[in-house]
Amino acid sequence: MLISQRSMPNQKPLNIQPKRILVITLRYLGDTLLVTPLIAALKQAYPDADIDVLLPASNAGMLEGNPDIKRLLILESKPGALAFGKLLLSLFRRYDLAISTQTGDRPNLCAVVAGKISLGFVPDDAAKAWWKKALLTHWLLFTADYGHAVLENLRFCALLGIAPCYRLTPPRNSMPIPAISDRYAVLHIMPQWRFKQWHAEGWRELVTFLDQQGFKVVLTGSGNTAELAALRELQQQLPAEVLDLAGQLSLAQLSALIAQATLFVGPDTGITHLAAATGALTFALFGPTDPTKWAPWPYGYSEAKTPFASRGSSQVFNVYLLQGQTEQNCLPCQLEGCDRHRNSHSACLDQLSSARVIKFIEQTLNTQQQ
Length: 370
Prior knowledge:
- 34% of the residues lie in helices and 18% in strands.
- With 370 residues, the chain is α/β, with parallel strands linked by helices.
- Helix 11 links the parallel strand 10 (263-267) and strand 11 (282-286).
- Helix 8 (200-212) runs parallel beside helix 14 (354-369).
- Mean pLDDT is 93; it is low at 1-10.
């Protein structure tokens, strides 16, 4: 663990009792869920503290109904300099403790301004890190090879001298979900980026298999116009009738839907992280991304080591990770597809056969029935 001497003089953790805490997470939907173990650890250690979270408006649904959080502070998409300046002014010294869970300039600046004590990650780049090291009260050096993102966030627990919590907290509310058959499977087909996408033929054959096994197939997705159009096109090619709920559910409703499903199948996306966190039987289709860092965190897993290796398909608790494969044996490359951009294809996912995925799922279901 890389911790600055300024962060832990004489290797002694901080001894504080904050009453107001701000956690800052400004990246993607999955990152928001993966910070909930840190939030739970803070609430566990400081039960009387009010914990607020600063996050993008698009991610707020992931923290709906979280019992550890007092208030969500919503940051509108890509605020200009004036709007961001007003935000900083509104945050000025409002918190006893502020934690930035990213190395970026804006999250760290928010932590510095908001917290009487400010903690944050700094990049392993002297040119980018110097002012953050100077302004943050305490800092941790971010290192990509540390391990899973959950464990990376929990490094702040050692700095604070508090016990970690390894449980992810899915969103929740009291809104009902559609009544579905007792035996259904949820498929989340479309990731945000093309390079994480499995091929349409694979999804068609998987739907056929699930239908033959007596499952009602439920499709989920965002309300994004392009995504909805792609799902409609795919449905026209499907051999069985499916229930399409894409764009119709909140994240909390989606969480409840997946939790009651027999199984979930999805690519490397925030919703697959959510599925794992509900305790549902989760099959994750991974391509270029390193599972060591970004595999779905298994429900009930509570070890201070990453649950999945960089290479190979494996199972840990309720998560079954199926990694693609190529003749070049180049996984995980950690690149945005073979053409190095987010709308690129990924050969490892293109070559992940439906037969292999179906066999993996069939064997798992047969084992569970024994």
